[in-house]
Amino acid sequence: MDHVARRTFPHYFAPGKKLFQIVVKMSDEPGSLGRILNLLGTRVNLVGTDTYTMKDNTAILNAFAEALSPNETTEKLQKLVLSSNAALDAEVTEGREGILVDAFHTGLEADGESLMLIRRKALARMLDRVHALLGTGGDFLLYEEGFAIGKANGEGFVKMLGREKIHDIIGYLRNNLSAQGWGRVAVGEQTDGEASHLMIYDCFECSENPGSRTGCHFFRGYIVGNRLATTGQELAAEEVRCVLKGDKVCEFLLTPKK
Predict the structure, then answer these.
(1) Domain 11-115 belongs to what architecture?
(2) Which tens digits make up the pLDDT trace of 143-190?
(3) What CA–CA distance (Å, rounded) separates 33 from 63?
């Protein structure tokens, strides 16, 4: 199966459609989700759903939906959901002018920490602005910021798993960057003794190609900081290929510091 970008729904746009966000607090028992979805399937077309468990042994279903009838209302849908003994509570909101905005959630969370969404192209433009204003000083700043974030993220995994376990599954953990839209990591063959190559496909720093930046300084710092946190190894990282220079992939030569 081809891998795809995960769809999230801070908003959904469908002109001419009657749109609803349906949030259900339900018992975290086998079959609860199926019973709720079977009810909703008779009245709405579900365009996006996600579910997650809560600390109080309940679960949340969040659904973005298009009404099958122009006479559908928030009150009717809420009553429908609450008619199931699997539902503990429900909140239904209607979109406006063809757009449905998530009116329930207050952000994102992973591993107990708050996250936020930002467009890849917007972030790439911000990095380009730093370079345009500060030149090589901006590149150094981006490297240092990448190093700090890479180190912090690595420390999070060390706290969770320990360095020994990270070493055993490091290849698997690299999927975390791809899942978050940063880029897909691949490891090349080792060269010159302990030196190695790391490739980043679809690197977020290159999602815009404005012509002023010529390298992924943030990602270069991220790699060094992350490796230091997860292995204790200090690296020198040199980007030998970059999409911003016309290459098909961003490639880094990693050399252990003596």
Answers:
(1) 2-Layer Sandwich (3.30)
(2) 999 999 999 999 999 999 999 999 899 889 999 999 999 999 998 766
(3) 12
